[in-house]
Amino acid sequence: MDIILSLTECRILGSLVEKEMTTPDYYPLSLNALQNACNQKSNRQPVLNLSEDDIVVALDRLRHQGLAMQSSEGGRVAKFCHTLREKLHLDEMELAILAELLLRGAQTPGELRSRADRMTTFDNLETTETVLNELIERDQPLVIKLPRQPGRKEYRYTHLL
Questions:
Q1: Which of 11, 47, 68, 147 could hold 62 in an S-S bridge, CB 3.0 to 4.6 Å?
Q2: Is residue 81 within 8 Å of residue 31, measured between CB atoms?
Q3: Considering all CA atoms of the chain, what is the largest pairwise distance in Å, rounded to the nearest integer?
Q4: What CA–CA distance (Å, rounded) separates 123 from 10?
């Protein structure tokens, strides 16, 4: 099951996971809320300016891959949610790490711990590294450890979606 996502699809999934974990009262997200989350200027790298059409097209591709769906919750406005937890069998910590990698790209374990801590608690850096190693050692790895950059002390990790 190779999952290959575009930058827009990564941003949508990362935004859906982030909003589910940080603002559950407002989740699932309407198309407008999802567009705002994707185009948010903080906690995103790179900053994007996605149109509603961009998001609709990417959502359709994600739905065909079984990674997102329209929520069955009633209401006048269609709302969308991710299915990463179920599809990839992820726990809370794995989901938070993956969301941060989808939203901001390659990061060090320290960066991931401090940024993902708003979604779920990471007791220490070793816990973060353990979660990263679990994501690397899966039958279908979701994360890879990048070679250390010249002049840098720490390794960085990125997702394989």
A1: 68
A2: no
A3: 54
A4: 27
Nearest to 159 by CA among 139, 137, 136: 136
CB count, 10 Å around CB of 139? 5
Backbone φ and ψ for 81, nearest 5 degrees, come out as -140, 165
Token readout for 118 is: 């708003």
- Residues for the chain: how many in total? 161
Q: What is the pTM of this model?
A: 0.93
Question: Helical H runs in the chain?
Answer: 7-22, 31-38, 52-64, 84-88, 92-104, 109-116, 125-136
At 21-78, the pLDDT tens digits run 999 999 999 999 999 999 999 889 999 999 999 999 999 999 999 999 998 776 788 9
Distance from C-alpha of 45 to C-alpha of 86, rounded to nearest angstrom:
26
Q: What are the distances in angstroms from CA 3 to CA 10, 72, 81, 87? A: 11, 25, 18, 11
